[in-house]
């Protein structure tokens, strides 16, 4: 169509270091079936041959500084258009401006298709082509665009979707990309061009939103095709406007677009949603180890939040220019449910990354095994020896029914849950104090530098409080649910971890791997260690949690032997995090890891001196040892400062711990509530016999080395006793008992594996039969232990606790720490003991703080005087120390009760049990009785702990690789 009969079209090309794409772009512009009337080129100081290529094709090029934004470059180009060629007039209001990038190559019929759609739809003011990926040419990039409520650019396309004509309908959209946008000159001027606050990204969405608000229509014309390389978005080139932070510019543009254009009625909620959503995105990027993108997200939010005046001014300008109904514009935005679907996709991506990494590790181990012994590896029978082997043409249910090992594992888990029925609901008794009413009490105990319990103490909270609080938060804020989950899932979690650990160990020792019946026996025996030891029935959380986490820790530590240095370092962070968790519940585990690490490194230095010199060899295990030191610093530093160093060798729960002897260590017992001793001695005997097979003697000796370290360390610590204010207790050795049993079980299965391989290789029926008989006898151990557990052994766990304190006094105590209750037990002839109850009583975590905090000298003296020669002055002192009630639980000593009845300032109080006597202190209580100093060092260490935990999780998380098309 002649130019005189239709509006003129001016192509405006903006370039920056685009010489690699410009030859094709020039051919695309000059080869249009409907030629453009004029081409204006603007270059932002390219460092390549862009200017020369443009001048050769279109004549003089207007060069502007490299820091010029895209909106400014478009304005410069329009100024050149208005000046006209050689001083001739510029464009008319009805003329069209065709915006092109230096990496956007238009199909020969693109402009003709756009103008044909404009003639068919005269209401259209902005038209855009279908964008396809360059150089693949078939993959779709955009067919129009909009934006979601979280700031995500939405195209309505699936990832990697190919163009098959499925989106070839002309339709109205919110915006089209500036790479190929055809816009009326009058509308461009009316809307005000592109926003200068969006220098390179997002200006098309903002322009389309403003155009729609002004009553103009934007259409996408799929018959017009432009091939776009997306050089800036994909990081194929850097500009002064983006540098290395492309993601920052994109996210900042999204936040700005939403905040300045959203409806005024929803604006406060939109701002809050974007702030919280950005923080969640930061956490998500950290979880996939995309630290740079996480920082870009945070920087973009800070940048926008620091410019409230600019945001409000831009909103005011858009409100004044708005003429279309809000409902019309809202219909062009992305559906409200779309961000939630993307959230599910992100979670699935994270799980896929973890799964892919696990599969990659397994494949590398298989490859290493094949390299060690190709013949035996090729001769493996996958359906018999490999639990990961595929079952051809069978469903999940069929595979389960035909797999006896899977059936037995399922039965073990079900029976373990049945045996743990006592732990459902509220759990208290034995070594377990009651849990607090809310998770916030645990967090407060963890973060406080001074605790208003007892008579007040600065002894830090034990380290297991924070993990329990985090677990309780995940379980709808219920501390009782957290404790119940730890006890109920102890055996299943240990079973799962042991299976994974022993399976990998078997593959490292032999290419054939470990037979599944051996895996079943070993993992089941170890998973039942906390039950058979009596730790579960006694409410000892240390051995229970240690048994659950140690297999996972050992599995992560196997990564120290990985050939790739990067994977060795990642194993260090994972092992360090797991070691910190185990240490929080069993501090002796860290000593074991340190001693074992020193022994292993010394042996390696003697045998493989050249290898150990590599920092990536000795660095990961050392890092894993240092991680708990950092993550648990608020606990151990505070304990040493307050003279409570004994807590560094104590385990969770009420004191004292049971004294353990050599037989207890070998049998794996920490309490008299455990299974029969004979069952515990079987793994020790089998571990000795495991030294006989020559094929696996070396790895069995390694297990015995770990067992020896655990045993010697336990025997050494068993001679240590701590004299605390209220009691004397030995060190907590539960974690070492679990470690010793784990080493013995691993040695046993490796020895059995060696004997089985020898019997198979030598075809000696007698030897093979002996192994089977031994396996059958050994199999009685898990069966007997599991049956004993399911039958309901005696335990110290109960659903309630009898405190002998009237309920109304407890209610008064919950009003504040100054409403304390002094509880006197015993009699004068046998001796009296006292305790102070505050709040809802002593809860899990507080019991250890009270035990380590020591007795208050002034209160002890007042109690002695109160029980010997009570006077009004002593009553005044009790009020000053925050004591409101004095209680003598049943049976109350008559002499003490008579003296207290006659003491001025004490008023008799009622009690539900008539043999229980109680008095109220008729004095004004001191509200500041329990106040104490704040430790800024503790606050700083909490900050170090938080930052360290985030860093360790990020460094140990699976990596999501982002592939960019080049």
TrEMBL record:
Keywords: Glycosyltransferase, Membrane, Transferase, Transmembrane, Transmembrane helix. It comes from the Bacteria. It is an enzyme of class 2 (transferase). The keyword DNA-binding does not apply. InterPro entries: Glycosyltransf_2, Nucleotide-diphossugar_trans. This is Glycosyltransferase family 2 protein. SUPFAM superfamilies: Nucleotide-diphospho-sugar transferases. Its EC number is 2.4.-.-. GO terms for molecular function: glycosyltransferase activity. The keyword Repressor does not apply.
